[in-house]
Amino acid sequence: MENYKRFGSFTMAYSIKKDPQFSHFPHEKGSIAYQDKFGVRIFVGDPFCCPCDAAAVIKAFVKESRLLRRPLVGMQCSLETARHFSSHGFDATHMGVETLILNDWTIKGKNVGRRIRKAQKKGLVVSEARWDSDPTLAQQAMEISEAWRQTRKTKTPLNLLLREPTFRDEPDERTFFARLDGALVGYVTFEAMYDQNRKIGWYANINRRDDSRNIAIFDAIVDDALACFKTEPGFRVLSLGLAPMAGRHNDHGFSNRLVERVSDLSYHYGNDGYNYKGIFQSKKGYWPKSFERNPNQVEVRDTYCITRGSIPLDPVAKAFMGVGILPEGLAHTAWFATRMTVAGMWREFRKTSRSNLVTFWKGLTASF
């Protein structure tokens, strides 16, 4: 896709380019990546086009989707894309935040520094390597990946939002491996980010590790990779990706209140199903204590979920099924979401309250 290197400056660009699940809506000024699933048209990220042409590309995309009677749901879109869809009657609800490490970032004064130093003291060694440099490397990495997946709260792959490892060398990918006492304990594959045909940075997309080691394997790899990337011409950014549902809601006037409420409940009480809080806190460890005093170290970028209609629960649920966050089938989804939310609320209630079950029930019903 020729537009990738011209307009692939957003985090998801390379994953979209490489993922065969995506189709591409063509336009003379650019394109939009999407997938039709469960009767819903799901698109991710921003249009591949010049910013000045985004309005025209989005207008044509919306028109075609309406002619096909395909409800649109967008994920991980930028504020600029959200505004364009808002002009066509869509809502854009805060979906989470991306953490992007900039060229002036230093480990000094960051919470993540303690985690990295602990890993280094334990003897963790990080190095970049090609997959074909060791005939046993792919098998070792597969075993790490499978063991890692079994520790996840959501064991199904998150299609569209995250890419699965291929265990082979690919253009515009680099992989760093972590070893402890000579044994492979984790790896991170970074994907290239481009702007106007120039490589501007990398996205830490594929992250697998042995969590039983109880050390910050991912953070140690990122630290070494960042030191390497900073020496290369044109480097501007290393994206740590999305922390779903995290961060404050927007005040731009085009949020869907129902989707916003579901997002709040998911983040605060749905961590039995997906580790929203853990992911956010991990990425937040890279933030400076004061953004005003350290303006060129980290960019925190808001992302948005695009929907239409006052009660868009059906298309949103189907979109979340399509990416793997929710189990397939609306009945399964409703039961899964209810069970995870109630379990999370009960856990928080027990931690913070000495009240009785009547108080808990009143709080639960008020939330819905």
From TrEMBL:
Under SUPFAM superfamilies, the record lists: Acyl-CoA N-acyltransferases (Nat)
The alphabetical list of record keywords is:
Acyltransferase, Cell membrane, Membrane, Transferase, Transmembrane, Transmembrane helix
Q: How does it sit in the membrane?
A: Multi-pass membrane protein
Per the record, the GO terms for biological process are: phospholipid homeostasis
InterPro entries hit by this protein: Acyl_CoA_acyltransferase (IPR016181), LPG_synthase_C (IPR024320), PG_lysyltransferase (IPR051211)
Start and end residues of each Phosphatidylglycerol lysyltransferase C-terminal domain: 9-290
Q: Name one GO cellular component term.
A: plasma membrane
Looking up Pfam families in the UniProt record yields: LPG_synthase_C
Cellular location of this protein?
Cell membrane
One GO molecular function term? aminoacyltransferase activity
Query: What protein does this entry describe?
Result: Acyl-coa n-acyltransferase
Organism in which the protein naturally occurs: Desulfoluna butyratoxydans
